[in-house]
Design a protein that fits this description.
The complex is a heterodimer of chains A (338) and B (288). Chain A contains 13 helices and no strands. Chain A is mostly helical and 338 residues long. In chain A, helix 7 packs antiparallel against helix 8. Chain A is flat. Chain B is flat and about 65 Å long. Chain B has a single domain, classed as MetI-like (MetI-like fold, Orthogonal Bundle). The chains are: A mainly alpha (338), B mainly alpha (288). At the A-B interface, helix 1, helix 4, helix 5, helix 6 and helix 7 of A face helix 1, helix 2, helix 3, helix 4 and helix 5 of B.
């Protein structure tokens, strides 16, 4: 045991360098104590996650007594992996941003097309979320709170199985449903515009539901137990305990779903191709000209290359904003998970 | 008093039955969709899978399906080592700092990026550099790059889900961090990891957008574009005049069955995690 402790703490006995800085005395004391006995000391942990991993050797400590300048071990290999991943992803971002800046500087953009495409994207995604979110909230509540275990499992498995349905298939279904009675040129523009959010809702409903079920399951049973112990009925428990506890998850699901629905290409693209017959002015397809559709169609027909990158940058920004908003709402995690 | 309680009971019954109805309706639509595809597509699929449309062997589904499966597996194999290394490093080695949080946020944001961005990468960056005709390679690379952030965050999340006591006990026994990560944490998270990899593969195999973009990089005179199953469905839908033909349903059925099988394997792998009765006791379920 002593050897373990020495191994874990050995390299950090001299922690005087950590005592410099604008920290308050109390924090310093807590930290001092944490270094001395990481297992029993309460509070402050410099490493955040787990107190014991902070003492293990890093590269700097390994090289401290030697005259080597580099150390190449597992940590360095993993570091290289992380660096390579970051480099690849950075290259993706730089590629899009560079293209967008280049075409913004060249000034021959048709900004009207870009703005309408962005507005259409937002509208369709918002419509899909508005349709799908309440339904999947109800389903999630039914699965976690209300249903007997067999129906709950049946719905859960259905939802899980359908959560990666290829969107082209949904596009095909939508096309068949819309054009089964009349040819695509005879369909009213309203119907054509309303179909896209409904089909997207079909795609994001299983994802919403599984996300919300995961979230509801994180809520500790002690909250529900306390509610029951205070004499609340099941409905009161759901309405006043479970729902408020799940609100952040619902908001997060909404934002993630917005991002997912905005980025979905194939459904809207298939509908757009069917309705437009290849031109932009066709009335039924105007509302379906979303950002991904525009990117794909522009690339396919080689119309204006300069706009592609600007639209890609826009969709990246939207998706980043939505995912970071969603992540902000999922930050809360329950302590003492049961 | 009595009427009031009766009224509340009636209200409760109404709400309960509407919840049940909504849920089963939504799940029923999903099931109906699969049923409809089976109904319309099973016959054509049996024909088209081998001989193609009108005995046109270029549209036979079997080679396209194999190519799609190959693409999924190869992309996952390409991305997995790097992604696991990244996830392990970020979870187990990197100090918790603001920079680390930023990096994690960035990778997560890129994992949620729409697939068309990765198609754009293949169309605008990979295609001009790698040269004509190497479309299969470009699709593979773009898919692997798309999977990379997904699998990284997935590894990170799976490692973070391992209870801290595993880490602590392993370190207390004198194991190094790598030994802890590789022999303790990864085996614990194995099922979740495998399930997430399968989900990622299903996503890559079902998405048409990157292939649509990459196929657009060259005019079709340069030969056949690299057809995967979703792209095949898309292009034959767009190319055909008039309503959807029966072979479209065959393709769609094959596509949806592939995705359902992968998801089913994932669900089966995570069976232990999928304990739905965790929060509410079993005898409480179904009562209201």
């Amino acid at each position: 045991m002593l050897r373990c402790r020495q191994r874990i703490l050995g390299s950090r006995q001299d922690n005087s360098s950590y005592l410099v800085g604008g920290l308050t005395t109390r924090l310093l004391q807590a930290r001092e104590e944490a270094w001395r006995d990481p297992v029993t000391s309460p509070g402050f942990c410099p490493n955040g996650m787990n107190r014991l991993s902070m003492g293990t050797q890093g590269t700097r400590e390994r090289l401290a007594g030697t005259n080597r300048r580099f150390h190449f071990g597992t940590e360095e290999i993993l570091q290289l992996c992380a660096a390579a991943t970051l480099a690849i992803l950075g290259a993706v971002v730089i590629f899009v941003v560079k293209g967008a800046v280049g075409s913004l500087l060249s000034m021959d953009l048709e900004s009207a097309v870009i703005v309408t495409a962005a507005a259409n994207s937002l509208a369709i995604a918002a419509g899909a979320v508005i349709v799908a979110l309440p339904v999947s909230l109800v389903s999630a509540l039914y699965i976690t709170e209300l249903a007997p275990s067999k129906p709950a499992r049946a719905i859960w498995v259905t939802v899980r199985l359908m959560s990666q349905v290829p969107s082209v298939v949904i596009g095909l279904i939508g096309l068949v449903w819309l054009t089964s009675r009349e040819p695509s040129s005879a369909i009213s523009p309203v119907m054509a515009a309303a179909a896209a959010p409904l089909l997207l809702a079909l795609i994001i409903y299983p994802r919403f539901t599984s996300f919300l079920v995961e979230h509801l399951r994180q809520i500790p049973a002690s909250l529900r137990a306390s509610s029951y112990a205070l004499g609340a009925s099941r409905w009161q428990t759901i309405a006043y305990t479970v729902y408020p506890a799940a609100r952040s998850g619902i908001a997060a699901a909404g934002f993630f779903g917005m991002g997912r629905a905005m980025g979905d290409t194939a459904v809207v693209l298939v509908l757009w191709q069917a309705f437009s017959g290849g031109n932009l002015i066709q009335e039924q397809s105007q509302r379906l000209f979303t950002l991904p559709t525009a990117i794909a169609v522009t690339a396919e027909r080689g119309w204006h290359h300069s706009e592609v990158f600007v639209m890609a940058l826009l969709i990246m920004i939207f998706s980043l904003v939505f995912s970071s908003l969603g992540r902000r709402f999922t930050q809360r995690h329950w302590r003492g998970k049961e | 008093m009595r009427t009031r309680s009766r009224r509340r009971l009636a209200a409760g019954a109404a709400v309960y039955s509407s919840i049940v109805l909504t849920t089963w309706l939504a799940a029923g639509i999903l099931l109906l969709l699969v049923g409809y595809l089976v109904f319309r597509g099973l016959g054509p699929l049996a024909k088209v899978i081998k001989y193609g449309v009108f005995a046109n062997s270029g549209s036979a589904l079997l080679p396209i399906w194999f190519r799609t499966l190959y693409l999924m597996a190869a992309a996952a194999l390409l991305a997995l080592p790097l992604a696991m290394g990244t996830g392990i490093y970020l979870s187990e080695y990197a100090r918790e700092s603001r920079l680390n949080a930023w990096i994690l946020g960035a990778i997560d944001g890129l994992a949620k990026m729409p697939p068309i961005i990765y198609g754009l990468l293949g169309w605008g960056a990979l295609a001009p550099r790698l040269g004509e005709g190497k479309t299969a390679l470009i699709v593979l690379l773009a898919s692997a790059i798309w999977l990379l952030p997904q699998l990284s965050t997935m590894t990170y999340a799976a490692l973070q889900d391992v209870p801290g006591s595993f880490r602590r006990d392993s370190l207390a026994l004198g194991a190094s961090r790598w030994q802890t990560a590789w022999r303790v944490l990864i085996p614990y998270a194995r099922r979740t990891l495998a399930a997430k990899v399968l989900e990622g593969m299903a996503r890559v195999g079902g998405e048409a957008a990157p292939v649509i973009m990459i196929a657009a990089a060259w005019p079709s005179s340069y030969g056949q574009p690299p057809t995967t199953l979703p792209y095949h469905l898309y292009s034959s839908l767009v190319g055909s005049v008039g309503p959807a033909a029966s072979h479209h349903f065959g393709t769609a059925l094959l596509l949806i069955l592939t995705s359902i099988c992968l998801q089913g394997a994932a669900v089966q792998l995570r069976r232990i995690d999928n304990d739905l009765t965790g929060s509410v006791r079993d005898w409480e379920r179904g009562r209201w």
